[in-house]
Amino acid sequence: MTPQPKASHFINGEYVEDTKGTPIPVIYAATGEQIAVVHTATPEIVERALASAKEAQRTWASMTGTERGRILRRAADIMRERNHDLSVLETYDTGKPLQETLVADATSGADALEYFGGLAASLTGEHIPLGEDWVYTVREPLGLCVGIGAWNYPTQIACWKGAPALACGNSMVFKPSETTPLCALQVAEILHEAGLPAGVYNVVQGMGEVGSALVTDPRVNKVSLTGSVPTGKKVYAAAAEGMKHVTMELGGKSPLIVFEDADIDNAVGGAINGNFYSSGQVCSNGTRVFVHKDIKERFLARLAERVAGAVLGDPQDEAVNFGPMVSERQMEIVLGYIEKGKAEGARLICGGERVDRPGYFIAPTVFADVTDDMVIAREEIFGPVMSVLDFETEEEVIERANATEFGLSAGVFTRDFTRAHRVIGALEAGSCFINSYNDAPVEAPFGGVKASGVGRENSKEAIKHFSQVKSVYVRMGDVEAAF
Ligand code: NAD
Question: Where's the active site on this chain (predicted)?
Fold first, then answer.
């Protein structure tokens, strides 16, 4: 598979190019080389996408759920058949190691298409008896939905938004991140190959302005964004102006709490998964690792031993398990945080620098003796930087874990199950883990509280965010009126 797509956009069932749009170079993060180019959507392209989606939605919604679901499930099968090529493309798009993309991206997208394809036929309303009268409810689609993606999981995000939207009878215009514009086009192509009517799922490229043009268009009924908190605030406000539905999947600075009775190797494994998978570019990462002071040095020693086993290198080599930052800019941001950590007096256990090779690699970095007031403990870094903080009591750690504007995820490692449930119950977070970290099966709701977002993706919860309920009162007798 060559990374250069057939054209920049996918509208009304076909690839569309418009070279009048500003070129967006696609840079391979492992080498710094340009591997493709796409063009920003011009206002004409945005208009074509919105008009096609608006038009196609009616026909799509008039099909039965079984028919819609069959198309989504067929798309899931095609995705699985092409998993290898799609994973290679995902690696070019993001720089994530093929070892990861083979099992976490097109496969996760296919899971969403299969799951929501399976649910499509079961979306029904209720019958509410009221004596001889009754009310019935109808679960209806919202209409035209806009999806806007971040750069860390381009295939997965395109599917996590598209699959529930389409299952409910909506159409979608999806704008991938300008940093990773390639994979969503494959999702659109596969959906149409599976029989999706033209115009139901469209992809347009561009930066924030294109996203903003989509969000503010009066034809759009719903906006689902995956991105940072500052972007989320802007998009939420713009959507509110038009009274549109929103789902906001935003950033985090999640706590992972390791109690003194935890299985150390499992807790270290959880901390590695929650900080270094995708080179730390995961929104739900447990980047504040609170370790009980009695086991802190044992935890750090085992962590350093295991982090030394990370295999950096060409991400297309399946033996490599640690890749570069997605872009030079992201690398600079993360290196800036590492310098702040050093300057603030955190103890560097490992990493802490750029790796001397082409591309945007940063060594997996662990800071110990981090305190709550340090910048590295407060701000989302979105890179391979773990902060280890000490704690002594359960009460204290709960309070400190919650002392953040974010609330995406939280994890607890302990052998004491009563404590595990008590602590998870007290943590302000949407997606939580006990003796595990960062599992995201399609069957489980995913999303945050506080500044980390509103709404949920995946699971039956997502259906509520891509549909609305109409209620119909039916009177069997005569109408009484005052005059
Ligand atoms: P970002 O906020 O910079 O951009 C996200 C998307 O929004 C991009 O497609 C961008 O072009 C678009 N955008 C920017 N300004 C816009 C505007 N005014 N109107 C409409 N669209 C606009 O985020 P990013 O740097 O691509 O991704 C990293 C961030 O995403 C991190 O904060 C991370 O935590 C978050 N994230 C969250 C989740 C989640 O599910 N909660 C998943 C992945 C990433």
Answer: 249
Ligand 1 pocket check for 249: Cβ under 6 Å? yes
Evaluate: CB of 285 within 6 angstroms of ligand 1: no
- Structure pTM? 0.98
147 close to ligand 1 (CB < 6 Angstrom): no
The reply to whether ligand 1 has any atom less than 6 angstroms from the CB of 231 is yes
The alpha carbon of 79 and the centre of ligand 1 are apart by a number of angstroms equal to 25
Low-confidence ranges of the chain (pLDDT < 50): none
Q: What is the pLDDT of residue 423?
A: 98
CA separation for the pair 153, 172 (Å, rounded): 18
Closest atom, ligand 1, to C-alpha of 227: 30
Catalytic residue among 90, 114, 249, 380: 249
Nearest one of 235, 255, 208, 193 to 408, comparing CA atoms: 255
Could you identify the atom of ligand 1 that is nearest to the CA of residue 150? Answer: 26
String of b and e for 251-281 (b: at least 16 CB within 10 Å)?
A: bbbbbbbbbbebebeebbbbbbbbbbbbbbb
pLDDT score for 377: 98
Q: What atom of ligand 1 comes closest to residue 228's alpha carbon?
A: 32
Residue ID of nearest Cα to ligand 1 atom 16: 208
> Is residue 249 among the annotated active site residues?
yes
**pLDDT value of position 2:** 87
Backbone angles phi, psi at 299, to 5 degrees: -60, -45
pLDDT at 81: 98
Residue nearest to atom 14 of ligand 1 (CA): 208
